[in-house]
Amino acid sequence: MRLLILLGIIYLVYRALKSYFKSSGLFQNTSSQKPVSGSDKIAGEIDDVMIKDPYCEVYFPKRNGVHLKVDGKDLYFCSKKCKDKYLALPH
Prior knowledge:
two-stranded antiparallel sheet; 35% helix; rod-shaped
């Protein structure tokens, strides 16, 4: 019984100290991840936005797309093959 009480007291002291240090800012998150340039996202963060290929009109995750910038507009293609076919079209 004494052991249970002692463990309970130790746990309560641990929680109090953890709360104190967290609120005082002594131990802030020092993550090694940095934002990706030109974005407020963290490097390695998954972007699950589904977008439509302008050439073959299939939907795919944006992170897997092939990027092309045309007249200041960002286009994403499901493959390099679709991108090349789009560029071959007369515009």
